[in-house]
Amino acid sequence: MIRAFNTVQKFVSSKLILAGHDRSDGGLATTLLEMAFAGNCGIDVFLDLQKENEIIHTLFSEELGLVIEYLPSEESKILSLLDKASVPYQRIGKSTEEKKITVFVKGKPVLLEDMRVLRDIWEETSHQLDLMQRNPENIREERKNIYDCKGPSYIVPFTPMPTRKNFIHATIKHKVAVIREEGSNGDREMSSAFYLAGFEPWDVTMTDLLLGRVTLDKFRGIVFVGGFSYADVFDSAKGWAASIRFNKKVWDQFERFYHRPDTFSLGVCNGCQLMALLGWVPWRGIADELQPRFIHNKSGRFESRFTTVTILKSPSIMLKGMENSVLGIWVAHGEGMTYFPDMQMFSECEYGLAPIRYVDDTSKITESYPFNPNGSPAGIAGLCSPDGRHLAMMPHPERTVLTWQWGWLPEDLKKSLKASPWIKMFQNAREWCEKPSA
Question: What pLDDT score was predicted for residue 105?
Fold first, then answer.
């Protein structure tokens, strides 16, 4: 087994295999089915056994073993390496686009079934548990929507490029304050994202600001990161908002920063909730009782998913040139549903100031679960200010700023992308700071 493990590691490092699964609980039959379920595809399996009574042993034995999937063009390399390492193997079949499971033993079918039917049975226990733990309406909707899902279709209408090294290694850079509070957990990823775009990120805590150790005057940008400030016991971001709004010295700092024409701000997840509570989005001067904000997910539970969003035309400086994109992105929130107490304000925001929307597998803006993880109207996943300088969004671009961080990426994009499309957000911010008029 050591030889097999080391050989498979060579396959992985050389990118020779597409998928793999150990033969464990349930044996070979369960291994193959789980691979088909995850791949949303069918399989044709042909087992050439010496004796007919070996069928049960072969399909359900839980002895050490594994299944790998590879392209036909890589077969000679893979078999050569297996032979060289004296690892026994057997070629047993292929994956298919048609969502059918077929298993033949000596040419006789022992299993012929629709993959979707089997997957539905496989998920039944989780479905029943979910009905007791989350909003049953959402759970039934999810089962219906994922039964025959085809998977997202990403659209990248621009060419993402890594930041040029002269920006990364510059001795003088624009400073951005990555602000965190007790319970925040997205500050490291956010600092990395801005660093990779050519900024000088500063780790700034609310205690630094409250004690006067740091002021906002020297920063061009500030970022309110994700996480669970004060463990969300005050309702998401309300404790964080209170530490700013009810301390005059700190509030005055933030007010000066907000109104400076050469500054920008970004709030993600918990930081997005905070920006709404501070009145930074969609615009200033809204009465507290009419202020749009983010409330409990319709599902009634925390949602952590790799979902899909589209980017619409807007004044946002960070989303410039990304219009009409359809991209994968992580969400991780319990209170992400956009709530508009005033429907007139909703109408004004929907066209122009809500640039990020959840979409389904056909790339259409949606309110359907689980494509829309929180139930936000019109699929709204973020808001920006009319001048474009301030952007608040629930999904996490900093957690998808590198291509390997994506939960799923089609093979053609893996080969063609030189950088993650989300890096452009942060590069846009730096380019905006470099403009003389900014």
Answer: 87
